[in-house]
Design goal:
alpha/beta, Aspartate Aminotransferase, domain 2, Aspartate Aminotransferase, domain 1, 2 domains, seven-stranded mixed β-sheet, 12 strands, binds pyridoxal-5'-phosphate
């Protein structure tokens, strides 16, 4: 069995089967091609490969069969033409910007994005003549007002981190296209299981594979998905600048994709129960989870996503002291800023992921001192609840 037809098969079949090419050994699982380079049958074949006249591998900075299987599988799951795997989520964003933009171009970005992406836009890309304006994720007038003649790209994450605000992707896609811009969606929180940005009008989808795609905290990696022509430009950056994915990491992510659907369903189910329980606790001021009827974009999330995700944030009454005491009291939750793992994680955004912001910037972004974010894992929900309950009672 080799290439499976993405149109013919459902998403679960693609997640398990797409992209696999068996060797003559007949292995059932995918091979890890742990090789930096490839040999040619003769000098003429080498010349043809280098000239681009004959398809095939040359060097693993460019292509590697294990990496290609991961790319084809993820592209099939997202419903995109082509995927390029990268060494990390950040290098996926960097390669997209370097491949598709040039000096003088302008980006409009949601302000509620991964902190390192803000840093990349503000402090790295700006050195090379790429300017970025930041807007509130759900303020559509602000998005439109920020677009300039030189704007080429709108960038967002939805749901946002850590407050789980939801952006209307079709609405922003229409806005982007009306101004000849690309809509780039970092789909890390939903994965293709819960949200398919291409079907909502996005042009480019980005992943940090480090999160749910691996899902078990083992490897760092990323991916860019989009149409053939634009992805060729992104691939050009990879091929030349080299932030390529290693074959071993590709294999880990490939195996992660096979169980992604069942894991995401379980993450959503646990997160929903935890959010509903948290909302009932007197020590909790407010809970942010798109699956709650109290969430301002609950209805939009239900329309745009096929599940509400695994991230739950909440404000503990009593500010930073109370939030830290709750975090420190837990026995099960890992205190780490990572997310999307089978193991539940707990973090205090104001003093970790968002500590670089000034107090005013944090207040603007809604990141209060009492805010706690949980990435809900796959432990028994009763244990996750009991562990938090003990901490809340102790206060
Ligand atoms: C973690 C993360 C990134 C960066 O990915 P790395 O794999 O850590 O480089 C980008 N976007 C989002 C939404 C993330 O959570």
């Amino acid at each position: 069995m080799s290439k499976i037809d993405p149109v013919k098969y459902g998403r679960n079949t693609r997640a398990v089967r797409a992209g696999q090419v068996r060797s003559a050994e007949g292995e059932h699982s995918e091979l890890i091609f742990a090789t930096s380079s490839f040999v040619f049958e003769n000098a003429a074949q080498a010349a043809a490969r280098f000239k681009g006249d004959s398809p095939g591998n040359i060097y693993s900075r460019f292509t590697n069969p294990t990496v290609r299987t991961f790319e084809e599988r993820l592209a099939a799951m997202e419903g995109g033409e082509r995927c390029v795997a990268t060494a990390s989520g950040m290098s996926a964003i960097l390669s997209t910007c370097l491949g598709l933009l040039r000096s003088g171009d302008h980006i409009v970005s949601s302000q509620s994005i991964f902190g390192t992406t803000v840093n990349l836009f503000n402090n790295i890309l700006s050195k090379f003549g790429l300017q970025t304006s930041f807007v509130e994720l759900t303020d559509y007038e602000a998005w439109e007002a920020a677009i300039r003649p030189e704007t080429r790209l709108l960038f967002l994450e939805t749901p946002s981190n850590p407050l789980t605000a939801i952006a209307d992707i079709p609405r922003l896609a229409d806005l982007a296209h009306a101004h000849d811009c690309l809509l780039v969606v970092d789909n890390c929180f939903c994965t293709p299981i819960l949200q398919q940005p291409f079907s909502l009008g996005a042009d480019i989808v980005i992943h940090s594979a480090t999160k749910y795609l691996d899902g078990q905290g083992r490897c760092v990696g990323g991916a860019v998905i989009g149409d053939e022509k634009r992805l060729e430009d992104v691939f050009g950056i990879l091929r030349t600048a080299g932030p390529s994915m290693s074959p071993f990491n590709a294999w880990v992510f490939l195996k992660g994709l096979e169980t992604l659907n069942v894991r995401m369903q379980a993450h959503c189910s646990n997160a929903q129960k935890l959010a509903e329980w948290l909302e009932q606790q007197p020590g909790i001021e407010k809970v942010y989870y798109p699956g709650l009827a109290s969430h301002p974009q609950h209805e939009l999330a239900g329309r745009q996503q096929s599940g509400y995700g695994g991230i739950v944030s909440f404000i503990v009454k009593g500010g930073q002291g109370a939030a830290w005491r709750l975090i420190d009291s837990t026995a099960l939750y890992s205190i780490t800023a990572n997310l999307g793992d089978t193991k539940s994680t707990i973090t205090h955004p104001a003093t970790t992921t968002h500590h670089r912001l000034t107090k005013e910037q944090r207040a603007d972004a809604g990141i209060g001192e009492g805010l706690v974010r949980i990435s809900v894992g796959l432990e028994d929900i009763e244990d996750l609840v009991n562990d938090l309950e003990a901490g809340l009672l102790e206060r």
